[in-house]
Amino acid sequence: MSTIRPLPELLINQIAAGEVIDRPASALKELMENSLDAGATDIAVQLESGGIKLLRVRDNGGGIAKDELALALQRHATSKIATLDDLQCVSSMGFRGEALASMAAVAQLSLSSRTAQEAHGWKVETMDGHLSEPAPAAHPHGTSIELRELYFNTPARRKFLKSEPTEFAWCEEVFRRVALSHPEISFSLTHNGKTIWQLPPHTPAGRVAAILGDEFGLAAVAVERQAAGFTLTGLAALPAYSRSSRDAQYFFVNGRFIRDKVSSHALRQAYQDILHGQRHPAFVLFLELPPERVDVNVHPAKSEVRFRDSQAIHSFLFHTVQDALAAPNAEVAAPQPA
Ligand code: ADP
Ligand code: MG
């Protein structure tokens, strides 16, 4: 006869980590989103061995006060929502209060932070779910979170990691997505001591050019329309820049990178008359809508959304992009064949 018993806290967090932190890139996404939510204007990412050996994110955001450091690492503790109403119109990237707790359960985590009110920073470290007392630490205003040896205590999960270059490629993709959606912020990325990206603040178009290259910019038309409470901005590439995979499709909803069926279908359709065969369109598009018109609490990693009015969204996206691609100046922007 089996006995029902509550699971220990560490195991609960390790189970949650299976969904939220399924590879180094997911940890990087959560950390960078926390930095955005903290109002950072400068975010530095350091990785070693594809993020498996070391993953460090440093920001100059608002920081965490000494007496809240332990809470930040506690499951279901968040500064971002307090009520169901808050959840229904959430504007921050985070709100579930489980990312740091999950990370602390599957890696050696150290957290250093300093708020504007504090004369110096404070540092806490976790090991096997146990948290050290805060110790004074030299730290500028903002927060640094460091994860070492991801999945060191969950070998089954660690076995699922791909090669270091592959894990790095995923991390870099997360970095590109966050950097594209926040051109006003400066970002840097180093891997194994080598600087991979160094991005000063840009205009939106400047950031797209920095990340996707001038070729994309030259082949792209501007998209901009506001209607019925929706706003779509960004760049959509003409067929000259079409791809054999979906590797240059960036669609953001209220600043979040999203892959969803409604928008994918609408965008694909907008291209159907000008793009043939197996080619895939390339675009960087930002959809903004009131937060209560989209549910982001669908998936732990928040990479899916549910639109309250998906018909209207579909039609808005389809018509806006189709019109932009058909605009008279659309041809002019395309590079001339040599
Ligand atoms: P969530 O982001 O869903 O609230 P997290 O586990 O990611 O949950 O973070 C828990 C809390 O720790 C956040 O609500 C925030 O108050 C604080 N926090 C995490 N990272 C940072 C950061 N880089 N700067 C300031 N505060 C942070
Ligand atoms: Mg978070």
TrEMBL record:
Q: Which GO terms describe its molecular function?
A: ATP binding; ATP hydrolysis activity; ATP-dependent DNA damage sensor activity; mismatched DNA binding
**Can you cite a GO biological process for this protein?**
mismatch repair
Q: Which residues form a coiled coil?
A: none
Kindly list the GO CC terms recorded for this protein.
mismatch repair complex
Q: Where is the DNA mismatch repair protein S5 domain?
A: 208-326
Question: Mitochondrion: present as a keyword of the record?
Answer: no
Mind listing the UniProt keywords for this protein, alphabetically?
Answer: DNA damage, DNA repair
Family that this chain belongs to: Belongs to the DNA mismatch repair MutL/HexB family.
Give the function comment from the record.
Answer: This protein is involved in the repair of mismatches in DNA. It is required for dam-dependent methyl-directed DNA mismatch repair. May act as a 'molecular matchmaker', a protein that promotes the formation of a stable complex between two or more DNA-binding proteins in an ATP-dependent manner without itself being part of a final effector complex.
From the Swiss-Prot or TrEMBL record, give the protein name: DNA mismatch repair protein MutL
